[in-house]
Amino acid sequence: xxxxxxxxxxxxxLMGEEQFEKLAEALQHDTPVSIRLNRNKCKSVxxxxxxxxxxxxxYYLSTRPTFTFDPLFHxxxxxxxxxxxxxxxxxxxxxxxxxxxxLDLCAAPGGKSTLARSVLxxxxxxxxxxxxxxxxxxxxxxxxxxxxxxxxVTNNDPADFAPLQAVFDVIxxxxxxxxxxxxxxxxxxxxxWSVENVDICWQRQRRILTDIWSCLKPGGLLIYSTCTYNRExxxxxxxxxxRELGAEILPVAVGEEWNITGNLTxxxxxxxxxxxxxxxxxxxxxxxxxxxxxxTLSSSDCMGKxxxxxxxxxxxxxxxxxxxxxxxxxxxxxxxxxYLWTVDNNIVTAFPVAYQDLYEMIKSTLKVLHAGVTVxxxxxxxxxxxxxxxxxxxxxxxxxxxxNLTYEQAIAYLRKxxxxxxxGVPRGYVLVAYQNVPLGFVKNIGNRANNLYPQExxxxxxxxxxxxxxxx
Length: 472
Known about the structure:
This protein has 472 residues and is of the alpha+beta class. Helix content is 29%, strand content 23%. The chain contains 14 helices and 21 strands. Strands 5, 6, 7, 8, 9, 10, 11, 12 and 15 form a nine-stranded mixed beta sheet that branches. The protein has a four-stranded antiparallel beta sheet with strand order 2-3-1-4, with helices on one face. It is globular and about 70 Å long. The chain starts with a helix and ends in a 21-residue tail after the last strand.
């Protein structure tokens, strides 16, 4: 790797000669492979793995498995995530102890969102947003596969959130950055790096933070992170947030053996840097801040005023025919009384009723790609179960017959090819699984089964590696 000369000069000045030389050496080696388990779907420990100390469900793998051809990967049993990024777990576990409403503002592809959804207290709600349309689709896919119903996925610019005002207890801003911490993982990041781009990034980051700041409740938490090394996007921005926006910078307890680096600018406030020559992972910077208490309008007042405005608008529209959700469909979800059931364009959605007001406000303000559990599509007298229901951990286990597939059948299913089930499997909608982990639905018609796997999620490669390496 040929590091840009300006990067070398700047980073050597920041870290010192000895530390920079160690960093430069580390960047010549392969990036570590790590995954994080979904304990709602997987109870096993990966073969030939070691634990990641700052994440309860994170593991380093000795070799890189063939993730694309592992059915359990597509089933949401685990997420392939860079180890340093899993440090977000520590910030959440140490400061969030009761149900919250959290926003992951720059969330794609979904690593930190699925992590947050796993460690937030029961009853929390996560809004995961991505401004880029194609990346937002990937974000929705990964969160649907993770299977938690307490999620809303949106596709919006940070400024679009301003009308919501102070509704979030926690905001995670993994802001777009110059990507210095991704150099050995992404050669394009090396080619695109420049001092000018660093300047563009730190200014953009401040605009993003300014746009979203009013949406954080007084006393709420901001988790700020980047995957870069320079001080402008890291310590300087954290200092700016505390000074200009009004926040207290909070410490996070860490193990000394984790080899996390602190503030490199001489400042006394706590920040957390992951440097590849000291920690097993890629470059990461993270800081936790608490918004100052002030006289800002309370979130309940904000929500109430907005809801009255929205209801007035809705009342002015011409009324349409309301389609009722079939009782049989509601039975497909455990404890259906805990959900708000809606039918929009014949798509049935179940959303936690505890957050109904927030959901209505978000729908009227933002572009929602996914929320709660998409349960079914109504087609005439037929109710077609949705893939989101198959992935959901709230699905009623007794509502559909289950057919376990062989590995070959599972790969064929994930390629959206027709599969043939055993003669004893009943006709109708069947949940297909691999190693007892649900993969999706088929409609069994006897001589074959119609494949209901989402077309856009299918494995596109017809190639199957000769020496498959699997996680488990």
